[in-house]
Task: inverse folding
């Protein structure tokens, strides 16, 4: 039923625990596709040492996490794609929770559980009346809450035919870019149940150096916005990034990003640290 896609680049300290967290699922109808994106350590050998016929290891030259995830989608033999990064962990009930959500919303194509950080930092969550619910307005709610994160997302394979896969031209925010494109076209079903851990201490969380030209916020086009809430969402994201550049004295990055979006971002409000 599920194809679990795991991109892999130099995760020899993490990948075994990540794969084992998938293998220990209470729901067992799945395959695991590990895409080795040109690792230079022992990551691939560790995957090969795990003996389970459901694990398929695919090799490619280093092209970045988006290309690795896209390759996994391409190789998937099942209709539901479950993403899991090579340094994160699932609880045993993750896929079982997804199946429960599918039964409650059988016509929907995107299902998302909830996660926590490994250091147990506090996270804002909107108050909900239901444990499993349909997100009413992704762009409005995502301004405050981390609604989607790669290792809790399950998407029907046909969705990628409609809106495309991960943008391989981006090396920052490529996941948020995809979630936004999905949210424009599909309903998103979310569970409040925490079924995954984001391991902030994991090694090599990024496979590429920062390049603002390849970031989601730099490449976003406000004219492509489909709603007022989407416009506000991206204004919020860009404004927060600009403020971060100022606080960290990254003036050249601040100038470049501001000049790109100055028609839509108020410099006065930004400098006064006002909310949009």
Result:
């Amino acid at each position: 039923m599920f194809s679990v896609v795991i991109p892999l680049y130099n995760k020899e300290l993490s990948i075994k625990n990540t794969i084992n967290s998938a293998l220990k699922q209470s729901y067992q109808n799945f395959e695991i596709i590990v895409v080795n994106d040109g690792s230079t350590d022992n990551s691939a050998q560790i995957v090969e040492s795990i003996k389970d016929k459901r694990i398929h290891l695919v090799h490619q030259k280093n092209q970045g996490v988006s290309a690795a995830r896209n390759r996994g989608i391409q190789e998937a033999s099942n209709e539901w794609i479950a993403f899991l990064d090579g340094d994160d962990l699932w609880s045993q009930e993750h896929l079982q929770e997804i199946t429960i959500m599918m039964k409650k919303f059988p016509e929907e194509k995107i299902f998302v559980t909830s996660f926590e950080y490994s250091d147990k930092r506090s996270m804002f969550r909107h108050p909900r009346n239901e444990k499993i619910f349909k997100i009413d307005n992704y762009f409005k709610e995502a301004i405050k809450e981390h609604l989607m994160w790669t290792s809790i997302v399950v998407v029907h394979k046909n969705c990628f035919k409609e809106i495309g896969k991960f943008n391989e031209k981006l090396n920052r925010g490529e996941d948020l870019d995809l979630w936004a494109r999905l949210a424009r076209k599909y309903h998103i079903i979310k569970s409040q149940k925490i079924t995954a851990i984001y391991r902030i201490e994991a090694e090599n969380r990024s496979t590429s150096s920062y390049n603002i030209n390849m970031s989601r916020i730099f490449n976003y086009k406000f004219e492509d916005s489909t709603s007022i809430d989407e416009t506000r969402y991206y204004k919020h994201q860009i404004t927060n990034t600009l403020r971060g550049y100022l606080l960290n004295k990254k003036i050249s990055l601040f100038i470049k990003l501001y000049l790109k979006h100055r028609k839509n971002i108020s410099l006065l409000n930004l400098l006064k640290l006002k909310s949009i």
